[in-house]
Design goal:
The chain is of the alpha/beta class. Helices cover 31% and strands 21% of the residues. The chain has a single domain, classed as Class I glutamine amidotransferase (GATase) domain (Rossmann fold, 3-Layer(aba) Sandwich). Strands 2-1-3-4-12-11-10-7 form an 8-stranded mixed β-sheet, sandwiched between helices. Strands 5-9 form a two-stranded antiparallel sheet. 40% of the residues are buried. This is Glutamine amidotransferase domain-containing protein.
Length: 248
């Protein structure tokens, strides 16, 4: 897979480019996202606004931004939620590569004027579900047929400037891009097996909600679908952060 046009001829000026990563738990572990970026020569600076840490007021010294998921909602009233959503404007203004995953994607959508909410029938996506790439998505890359989810809210009413890259049955917005550099993924491709197991155990109450899959299906699905998801994720990260295939 070739890098998209914006990456051609682009080189990092800094021998150790930095990525600002926002997490929403005490742990700073970033799964195979962090592993890939570090192996590609990036340094990760972890920010945790949920614990009062201030986000940088400039991204001049960063090569990109990632906002990961969490159990909270973009509709929550806590101050840090609004601060993170507003902070995304800095990345868009400075035209930095941006990746939002699950909650991070919903924050990007909210920043752009989209709506985030639950389904009226209470259906959630907790487990493995089919993914369907749009024609625009297929132009960029090949996509996996099944992806892993753990959420009960989805993205609606994307602005017309955003490009829908992949869709699903229960929640229509699964992946999208805004401009050349901002990307949102509703699903989790960054999870390691250990991360998945911890989440299933810690959030066992979610497995009883409408549409959720039992714990056994999460781990069985990983054996069947995760290799394709992992390969896709690496290719996607190469595109988003302009990483040559010779660097990782």
């Amino acid at each position: 897979m070739l890098l998209i046009q914006r990456c051609r001829g682009k080189k990092q000026k800094n021998s150790k480019p930095r990525i600002a990563v926002v997490v929403h738990r005490q742990s700073t572990y970033t799964g195979r996202l962090g592993k890939f970026l570090q192996q590609s020569g990036f340094v990760l600076d972890i920010y945790r606004p949920i614990f009062g840490q201030k986000l940088p007021n400039t991204l001049k010294y960063y090569a990109g931004v990632v906002i990961l998921g969490g159990p909270m909602s973009v509709n929550d009233s806590e101050a840090y939620i609004g601060e993170e959503i507003d902070w995304i404007s800095l990345s868009l203004k400075e035209n930095k590569p941006f990746l939002g995953i699950c909650l991070g994607a919903q924050m990007l959508a909210r920043n752009l004027g989209g709506r985030v909410g639950t389904r009226s029938d209470g259906t959630v996506e907790v487990g493995w579900y089919p993914l369907e790439a749009t024609p625009q998505g297929k132009e960029l890359m090949n996509w996996p047929e099944m992806v892993y989810h753990f959420h009960d809210e989805g993205i609606y009413d994307l602005p017309k400037e955003a490009v829908l890259l992949a869709t699903g049955h229960a929640y229509p917005t699964q992946a999208f891009r805004y401009g050349d550099n901002a990307w949102g993924l509703q699903f989790h491709a960054e999870f390691t097996r250990a991360m998945m197991r911890r989440l299933v155990i810690r959030s066992a109450h979610k497995l009883t909600e409408k549409g959720a899959q039992p714990a056994s299906a999460h781990l069985k699905g990983r054996l069947i679908y995760d290799q394709a998801l992992s390969q896709w994720f690496e290719n996607a990260l190469r595109q988003i952060f302009c990483v040559s295939s010779t660097l990782a």
